[in-house]
Each structure stands twice: as structure tokens, then as C-alpha cells.
Amino acid sequence: MLTQSERERYARHLVLPEVGEEGQQKLKNASVLIIGAGGLGSPVSMYLAAAGVGRIGLADFDNVDATNLHRQILYGTSQVGEPKLSAARKRLHDLNPEITIETHETAITSENALDIFRGYDVIVDGTDNFPTRYLVNDACVLTGKPNVYGSIFRFDGQASVFYAREGPCYRCLYPEPPPPGLVPSCAEGGVLGVLPGVVGTIQATEAIKLITGIGEPLIGRLLLFDALRMEFRRLKLKKDRNCAICGENPTITQLIDYEGFCNPAEIGEVTPAQLAHMNDPLLIDVREDYEFKQGHLEGAWLIPLGQLERHIDAIPRDRDLVLYCRSGSRSAHALEMLRGAGFRRAKHLKGGYLAWGRESGRPGRS
């Protein structure tokens, strides 16, 4: 039941027929986890707190920096240098002392995401990097939570609700991340200070709609915002039946190594010298049969790249794997496939079979 003070605080909600006391009670009983207490997390958390969401979780591990202040309106100049979560807790409790603020001062990782997400009804993605964005999506799919997505860069923003139970997920739209370095960060490319306010407010609106059951959430729709043209566009999204995590035959059934998935060249390479000192890795040759017959590394399994997906269930997940091809191109692609399927201990041989021959002085181990 709402208290008298709550009825006064939320009076303008209560007179809305679509919300009323029943909808406000739903907000009071709800819990929302906001990943990132930065540009997007600031307006999202403030508006959800003001709206009366009973329990708000914030996940961040950064400190307030002077460069944050032009867009992260949750903080003030006097809080520069403070941990964001302690500063955010004070501000949100001042805004609404009748709600609960929970803080998770840690990076969201494959090890803790599922346990944290299970404790909330709705997840709001306020992240600014691809590894965490894919991690949030996959954890939401595996826990059955709606993912209120937002993204900003320079003068452009995006928003959607990825909810695999009712529509597409983030991977249906972006099956693979862009190559490392192709998309600059906001620190490198800049961002208009008001832009996260626009997109974050849209995210807060979507979270409120999901909780109260009113309106039409952005499930199956991507909202695009161009601040320079002051223009909104909507794109229809379809669920990908071949999606790696929410499709008809998912290949991702547990959280994976997202740094490796998004940055395979940095995380997933092993040099010939490093390979020589590895402790009994399983070698997988992804070349064609005729290439394998001309020479190969001793003990290697032959699984041509075109057949890899069909044989993926036969590959052990509890061993170190090293993929190789002639020069490293095909094995890098194979690595992406295995990483996408949850193989955390897979790497590929930098420079391939040719590099092994040059550095070892012999064409192969056999």
C-alpha cells in the first residue's frame, strides 16, 4: 500500500488513468539494475528514483572526473575524485528517501553477472564498450530479463528494448562486434553533453512502461536520434532464428570471454614461441585436407573451417585449444566462431603454419 507521503509525492502519477495507484504500487514493488552510472546512468537513475521505483541497483567502479560533469548530471564539482556510487547514492536518496539504493562497486563480468541480474526485474544498459554490451545482452537472455538498451556517440543516439522472450536480442541486430579500433570511444570522438539526457530519459521511460505494463515498449524496434537534425527514426527489428544465443539452436549457453570475443587479435593470439611452451594444447588445423596432407603440426585434428560449425560439439571445452591455418586469417575467423560458442580457452596461432615453420626452422612437428 502507498503511504500518505507517497500519495503526495506521486500525485501527478496517480491522476493518470494509465498509471493510477495500481501502477504506482507496481513501481514501488519493482527493482531495476542500471549498468553504468555515467552519462546514460545519470538521467536513468534520477528519473527512476523520482518515479518511485522501489529498489534501484547501480553497478559502476569509477570515480567522478571533471570531464564527466558536462553530461553526467548526477554529480557536482564538489564530488570530483569521489567514487561514483557513493556520490550517486547521496544524490538519489536526497531526491527520494523512500526508495532503496543498492550499489555494486565492481565490474560486471562473466563470473558475477548472472547472480547479480537474477535479483532485479529490469536491466538498463548504460555501458560504453562492446564487451560489456554483449555481456549484458547475453546475461539478460540467460536470466530472462528485459534489456533496456541505449547508446550514444557524438550527436547520435540509439534506444531499444531487447527482450528475447518477446522479440529480438542485441545479437540479433549485431551478431558480431565491429573490428577493434573501428568505432572510437566517446573520449576519442566526443559527445554532445545533452545527448545522454535525451537517450537516458527514453530508457527510463521504457523501464517504467515495462514495469507498469502500459504503452508499447520498444521491443522489436530501434529508435535512432540525430541531435543535429532533431530527427527521430524507427527501424523494425526481427528475431534472428540463427542468433547464437536466442535463436532456435543457440550455440551460446553460458557466458563467455567477452574481451576475447570483441578483441580476438589482442586476447586470442599465441605466437609460435608461446605455442612451443604451452602444456599439451589441443591443436586444430582449419585448412583443407590437401593442405593438411602436405604437412601439419604433430597431433593436430583436421577440421576445415567450412566444417567447423558441424563438428563444434566434438571439441572439448575443458582443454586449451590452438587453431591454425596457413597464415592466420582462417584460424582468426575460426576463433571468433569458437569464442562466440563459449570456448573460453581457445586461441589461434599468429602467422599460422608458415610462421611456425619460419620460427622453428622446420615446417611442422611431424
How would you describe this protein?
The protein is α/β, with parallel strands linked by helices and 366 residues long. The protein folds into two domains: 4-236, 3-Layer(aba) Sandwich (Rossmann fold); 268-360, Rhodanese-like domain (Oxidized Rhodanese, domain 1, 3-Layer(aba) Sandwich). Helix content is 35%, strand content 17%. The protein is built from 16 helices and 13 strands. The strands form two sheets. The chain has an eight-stranded mixed beta sheet with strand order 3-2-1-4-5-6-7-8, with helices on both faces. Helix 4 (41-51) packs parallel to helix 5 (84-95) and helix 4 (41-51) crosses helix 10. The longest helix has 18 residues, at 195-212. The protein is elongated, with a radius of gyration of 24 Å. The N and C termini lie far apart (75 Å). The mean pLDDT is 92.
In short:
The chain is of the alpha/beta class and 366 residues long. It has helices spanning 4-9, 11-14, 20-29, 41-51, 84-95, 113-117, 130-143, 170-173, 186-189, 195-212, 258-262, 264-267, 272-276, 289-294, 329-340, 352-360; strands at 31-35, 55-59, 100-104, 122-125, 147-153, 156-162, 221-226, 231-236, 269-270, 282-285, 301-302, 321-324, 346-349. α4 (41-51) crosses α10 (195-212).
